[in-house]
Amino acid sequence: MFPTEPTAVNHGFGTLLKNRGFMLLWIGQLVSQLADKVFFVLMIALLENYPPPPGLAENSMYSTLMVAFTIPAILFGSAGGILVDRFPKKLVMVGSDVVRGFLTLLIPFLPREFLILLILTFAISCVTQFFAPAEQAAIPQLVERENLMAANALFSTTMMGALIVGFAVGEPILSLAKSYLGKDFGQEIVVGALYLLSAAIMQPINFKEHQPIEGHLAGTHVWNEFTDSLRYIKKNRLVLNAMLQLMTLYCVFAALTVLTIRLAAEFGLKEKQFGFFLAAAGVGMVMGAGILGHWSDKLHHKPLPLIGFLMMALVLGVVTFTHSLILALGLCALLGIGASLIGVPMQTLIQQQTPPTMHGKVFGFQNHVVNIALSLPLAIAGPLTDILGLRVVLMMMSFVVALIGVWAWKNTRRVLQDVI
Q1: Any transmembrane segments, and where (predicted)?
Q2: Which of 123, 271, 282, 385 is least buried, going by the fewest C-beta atoms within 10 A?
Q3: Which domain holds residue 197?
Q4: Structural domain tally of the chain?
Q5: Is the pLDDT score of 334 beyond 60?
């Protein structure tokens, strides 16, 4: 069993591993993220058993399902954050997991109609929008300010690990579930059980909640709270700058999900093997997050985001000039390390600079903006590559990434060095 409180304050993973509340949150969110990835694989697998509705081609069913899965992040990202500030964080996270678990367990008992599957997918994705900002807002309540960098590094490590492993193990897990628990409901039982397990793990956590005054809560309109968060972010240059850097980082990775398909062909791989490059970048992010978490005290006052942007720009600029697959994968890992030098410090900065009563709204807005920003590179990366070629597009991205990195550091370096 974990000890009740951390016994010392340092800057590495050691203190976090002794913090019972943080460890329960970390393990719980890891199980929940794994459930998210396996749930998505389950939805794709279930389409085989659902006849397409009139006027909709079979291939279009996949696209429609993906839209239903992703559009709640654009529509309800900020609303989820506002709700997080109105209710206890544990209630939101545990409740989200329980609702998603029961909705998943309902699937075998519902009619096998595509529209019902679509509505269920949309509903579960909507509930996820409340879990994400609550999770980010919970970290500063469980971890001392000095250990936030290490905490975010550990979360980033497991987030990327769940992303890499989740989709890979989804199919084998579901196949085993069909074999041992029955093909009619075995898969749904496993995914639903993962969500409920996550809820059970996080239930014992005791949060230091900073609840707003009840009268203020009742008299505040949701739209007013949304505009409050906008005003706060606009007024706080550090938080705004950190969000812009995170947006740039996510936009690069969104574009790379499209561009690595072309990159795979350049190295003689099949198009479906593009995941090798993304996995290498994921491994790099895990390595970078591990370095930051273990040696965060030694890296204090270093221009980590600037170094990260320049590393990413270097990789984007030279990767198409190499003809060695091993070297290209190594460069992708280097890109991932650079990404972690941006993502972990900037997420830590937002947590440090945001008052506890604004955590949910700010993190909800962050998730909202990032999800909207992701759609542009996904839409234009392919057509731009068709027109200009892969090398030119990557060189352009390299220039933009370097420019944003230098601009961001130049604007905030005097104050940024004191807080990261």
Answers
A1: 21-45, 65-84, 115-135, 147-169, 238-261, 273-292, 304-321, 327-350, 362-382, 388-409
A2: 271
A3: 12-203
A4: 2
A5: yes
